[in-house]
Each structure stands twice: as C-alpha cells, then as structure tokens.
Amino acid sequence: MQIIKLDATDSTNTYLKNLALLQVLQDFTVVHAHLQYAGRGQRGAEWISDPGKNLTFSVLKKHRNLPARMQFSITMIVSLGVFSALKQLNVPSLYVKWPNDILSGNSKICGMLIENLTSGQHIQSSIVGIGLNVNQLDFKGLQQVSSLRLLTGQPLDLEEVLQLLLIHLKESFTKFETAPHAEIRDAYEELLFRKDKPSTFKNKQGELFMGFIRGVSSEGKLQVELEDEQLKLFDLKEVQLLY
Q: What is the residue-level pLDDT of the chain in tens, covering all 243 positions?
C-alpha cells in the first residue's frame, strides 16, 4: 500500500484522480492531506476541517468487471468498512445515514465522496474520499456535528486512526467485493439511521412529508413507505432526511 502525504491540497480526490491520469498506480494507493482547503461532500457541499485535527484522505480502489449498474455496492462496502473501524474505537450509537454519512447518535462524524471511473458498462476504479472528524472541538456553529474526541473524551493519534480505517476498508472489500449484492445490502441496511422509524423528509420542491425508511434498492435509491403504505424510491437529489 502506497501512502502519499501532503501538507495541503485543494481536494485529495482531485489530486488522486489527476495522479492516476499521469501514472499507473497500485491498488489501494492513498493520498492523505494535513490541510484540504476545497474538500467536497455529497450534494456539492463543502467539507470543512481544521488543519491537523481531522482525517482527510482518498483511496484508489481498482475493480475487475464490476458492472456500472452495481456502483452503489461500492458505497455500501466503504460504509461497512468505516463503520467497523469506528466500532473498534468504541464510538457510541453508530449509524449509517443514507447514502454514506456516518453518525454517532444524531451527530455526523464522517462523510464520504466516491467517484467512479468507468469504461463502457464497467467501473474500472473508484476514488474513495473520506473525511473523519477526529480531534476537532469547535465546529463554528454547525449543528448535529461531532468528533471522536468530543464523543470519547480522549484525543486520538491521527496516524493510528488512519491505519485502522485502511485495514477495515481493505477487509470490507475482501469480504464483500465478490459477495452477492443482496448480502451486502442486508449488512448495510442493518446499520441504516432511522430505519423503520417514523421520520420527516423534505423533497426537492421543499415540501415536508412523513414516512418510514424500509431499505435501499439495488441501485441505491432510498425506499420510503409513505403514510398511505405506498413504497416510493428516491435518489440523492430527490429527498433529504430531516431526522
């Protein structure tokens, strides 16, 4: 495993993607930045992180004959790996908030951005970007955000946490990459935040509605049972879970 350490970069995902265009990289090449000043999250959100307090890194994962229609399996495998690592650190009340945020209770501690490089109908490789709040204590007024230090009461060594995450990510890919899709989905759905609980959602028109999360489809869409017992599927841009 090659780990490239940077003092600063705009985005570890962008850096790794550009590097992969210039040279042949080995599977599981990692780019870790002390400061990421233009980090990106889901829905085009900015990922804010104090320098030297948290982990911001990206991993190149190569695939063999993975159909493009199965791309959500990568999201699930990564989520399962990160969840497993944080569980080993005794982080309390862990959940996966669809599609790939990791929560402790109601507070977000980890976000991911996965960008897939395709050729024809297959995914050749993925750039897996991960931002984990480790030692940051102040989130400048952001609500429902926390860090490992705030949750455990202890500062953590960033290098040790990084190595633990990489071990669990590799183990997750080894375990699930060739597993049936249904098996991966079952494991992922067990961790879903607010599954089978009455929840409030907002659609893309800004309207609020109630429903129950029942799981995800094979394409990764969120399955929500509405008040009329109708099961409806939503993609990332169509719905937001408001707790």
A: 899 999 999 999 999 999 999 999 999 999 999 988 765 555 455 556 677 899 999 999 999 889 999 999 999 999 999 999 999 999 999 999 999 999 999 999 999 999 999 999 999 999 999 999 999 999 887 889 999 999 999 999 999 999 999 999 999 999 998 899 999 999 999 999 999 999 999 999 999 999 999 999 999 999 999 988 899 999 988 999 987
Q: How far apart are CA 183 and CA 193, in angstroms?
A: 19
Helices (H), the chain: 12-22, 72-88, 148-152, 158-176, 181-189
Strand partners, 55: 132
What are the helix (H) ranges across 127-208? 148-152, 158-176, 181-189
d(CA 30, CA 1): 8
The pTM assigned to this predicted structure is 0.93
C-beta neighbour count of 226 within 10 angstroms: 13
CATH architecture assigned to 198-241: Roll (2.30)
119 sits in which H/E element: strand 107-119
Cα 79 from Cα 95, distance rounded (Å): 10
Every domain of the chain and the residues it spans? 3-189, 198-241
The architecture (CATH level 2) of 3-189 comes to 2-Layer Sandwich (3.30)
